[in-house]
């Protein structure tokens, strides 16, 4: 069974949360996910700055 992601350094930018985690190979990944109801936006990035930029420019369209 796969181990769940352990997010650290989590911040919130509007309705989007950005957090960092280690993937199965020990690399650091950064995830941006919208928490608004009905919005399904989430994406993984290699750079923290890219994840934060996605969070700042995201517009919900549920």
TrEMBL record:
It comes from the Bacteria. InterPro entries: SpdB. This is Mobile element transfer.
């Amino acid at each position: 069974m796969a181990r769940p992601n352990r997010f650290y350094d989590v911040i919130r930018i509007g309705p989007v949360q950005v957090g960092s985690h280690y993937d199965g190979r020990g690399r650091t990944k950064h995830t941006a996910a919208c928490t608004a109801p009905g919005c399904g936006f989430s994406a993984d990035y290699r750079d923290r700055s890219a994840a934060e930029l996605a969070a700042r420019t995201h517009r919900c369209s549920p």
